[in-house]
Fold:
Amino acid sequence: MELRNLDFTNVVNEEQIHSVILNHYGLIGREWIAHQWIWLNGIYKSFDDHIKFFIIISLVEKTLDFYHQVNITKSYDEYYASSYLQIDKFTIMELCEKLKLPKETIRRKVFELEEVGVIKRDKKRVIIDRSAFPFVQPIEQIPLTAKYLSKIAELLFKEKILTKVIDTKTFEKIIKKYFSLCWRWFYKMQIPTFITYQEVFKDLTTFHIWGTITMNQVFNLKSINNIKNYDKWIDEILSTSKEDNYPGVSAMSISDMTSIPRATVTRKCKFLINNDYIEINNRKQYLLRKSNKYTIGPFQQEVFKRKAKFITRILNLITSS
Structure:
């Protein structure tokens, strides 16, 4: 589109988005936590393994990067029309560096993906078989992400940063139309975020369990409903403790919600207790500890910056379309 056709009244920048997120977090915090938890839950259920999924989407992201470099944009339907996804060549060391994992772990997981036919090598080509599409095709994720983006757009309209409301269907339509571009941005937000949490919690399974405890606390605490500012919102979330007789979430419930085996949940929760992330009440339910504000807080700020960049790009794509 030519420059003269752009509506600059609706162009936004990352600083504006970041500010709105922090100052109105109470209005969007639950939706964002649910958005991330649902995505992570889907990741685990794909293979009963977080790492295998991240290997696949890292390879997909690499291919999307190539499309971007040569100025190719594919719609959702175009991208998934083939019986396979051809992906760029890769090395084990490359995946190790990206996912911050040992060579032995990556080599074993890639071998397992090849054994079940998800990744195939056909002469000089490397492909992801169509049988894996249900695991990586974001059928449910696009509407969920679009719904969250519409909440942000509503706030931006109220703050007079946008001149019109952008609804969920519009976001969904634009993501599908420019899928290879938008989902590249999505992965640029999500992959580094979850790799950071993997480093903090030592593995993604532990983070998944901690995130489930966090979501339970957020969705059950009524006192946060009228708090907007992020810092005050977090303070209120973490003000509960086992002494308050506040309901937490049990190992059995975490296992039911995530499909992670109960024995694994119990073992990982011991790690979280020993490292001051959670505590357990007299009903054998888990709650967040107040120390999370200082241990997780700095990493959350990086998450918000990535999220602001993703939202800014999508909104400005709509403006220029």
Observations:
- Strands lie at 84-87, 119-122, 125-129, 249-250, 278-280, 285-288.
- The first strand starts at residue 84 and ends at 87.
